[in-house]
Each structure stands twice: as C-alpha cells, then as structure tokens.
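During the no-cost extension, the postdoctoral fellow (Dr. R.K.) reprocessed legacy sequence entries with the updated structure-token encoder. One reprocessed record is reproduced below for audit purposes.
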Amino acid sequence: MPPWSDFEPFLVSGLALGGVYALSGVGLVVLYRATGVLYLAFGAVGALGALIAWSLVTKAGAPGWAGWLACIAAAAALTLGYGLLFGPALAKRDPLVKAVATIGLTLILYGLMDLLWTTSGGQARSLTLPTDNGGFSAGQIQVTWTEVIALGAGVVLTVATAAFLRYTKLGTAMRAMANDREITATLGVPVRKVEAAAWLGCGVLSGVAGLLLADQVALDATTLTFLVISSLAAVLIARLRSIALTFAAAIAVGLLHDLLTPVTSLSNYRDMAPFVIAAIGLLVLSRHRVIAQSREEA
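Re-encoded structure tokens follow.
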C-alpha cells in the first residue's frame, strides 16, 4: 500500500471529479422527475459541445469564452430540441422505452463526432480553462481554481436545485409531474413549458459538465460519452429522487475512482468503481427498506 502522501493529490482531483458527477446527476434527476426520461445521451451531448468549443478556439481562433459559451449553447439547444421533438411522443411510454430512445441519440452523436473529429493519426486534443493556471497550496498539494470550481459547482447546484424544487412554482410543478403527469395537467399546470424548462436546464448542465470533464479528464468523444455512467451510478443509488443522496454518491464515486490510482494492483479496475458503489448502495438501501417493511408488518 502506497504512503498517504501518494493519495493526497488524488484526493483533490477526486473531489473535483465528484463535483462534476454531482452536477451531472442533479441534471439527470431533475429531468427524470419532470419528464420520466432517463437521459442517457447526457455525456454524448457534453462531448459534442466540448469538441465544438475546441474547434472554435483552436481551429477558428475564437476567444476562449466564445468557445465555452458555444459549448453550453450547443448542448442546451440540442437537448431542448430533442425534448420538444420527441418528448410528447415519449410522454406516455414506459420508462425503459424512454431511456432506449436517448441511447439512439447517443449513437447518432457518437457517430457524428467520429466523422467530424476523427481520431485517426493520433491527433491529441486538449481543452484548458484559464483557471488551470491559478490556485493555492494546501500543505503539499497544489489545488487549481478549476478543481475548486468543479467541486463548488456541484455543491452550489445541489443546494440551489433542492431549494428551487421546494420553494418555486416551477419546481413545485416539476415535483407534481413526477407524481402524476395527467392530474397535474388537469390542474392547469402548463406541462409542455415545465418539461421544456427541464430539458433546457439539463442541456445547460450537460455543456458545463462537458467543459469541466474535457479539462480534467480528456477531450475524447469516447471517454466523455461514457463518463455519464459514473453519474448514473450516483443517480441510481438515489433512486432518481433524492438530490442530496445523488450528491453524496457522486462524491464517493469520484473519490474512489481517483484514490485507486496510486494502488498498482487496483488501478486497472478503477473504472469499475461506479458499478461497485452503485451495487453496494442499492443493496444497503434495499436492506433498510426490507427491515422497515418488516417492522411495519410486525
């Protein structure tokens, strides 16, 4: 086992990665509660936005801020467009059908990215943020402002989303739609507008996550597309309901993923961390649920 000093840098990067997973998971939970759609194209949309930003900044010579705004705008427009076009048709379908439909979008975007940003020839791409150049030292650890922003964004978004769902009219409408869409519509709630807001918000978060992950992990279509699995692990532990539990699970996934890096015998298995945490979390929650039911019956 390596000394603790070898783990310290990965503790910071794990928290930052967990923060990005948290904001991704929160976006998935809010969209699911409003529409019933598990948006499996979240990672692919973020990857497309990041590649668009890279092309604008590197190839077209656009300012960095223009590329980042283009990333978020492209992800938001694509997600909103998908929701407006296919959302009504999927509204009354089973959750499995809704999820599979977003896999179709994932495959289309993945093929498009492979066509427009081919990786043949070993071309290396990188998308860096200005906050990478500054930061502070915590003991022997150098912390960049990007890592602080990543973790802070996860915390702020989790708190803000919980407050939004509880205290605003739009948030209340989303919670009502999660319980019964038809009854909510009969009460005069503009269901289509509420769903459009959920799709738009999820798209914005997808673009932000794509930017941060492209900076922290790699600007690669495959990597960014399937990193959504880590966010899904957190979402599944929270049973697509609890915002706070989604955040906690996302932080755990990010920490475990990076803290396994210095352990030579386990570093090759770190990509399995989301599945392990999800399995353990679901087993623990299921056990507590069974115990609670047994007590009620007794």
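DSSP finds twelve helices and two strands in the chain. The chain has one domain: 4-116+140-297. The remaining legacy entries will be reprocessed before the final report is submitted.
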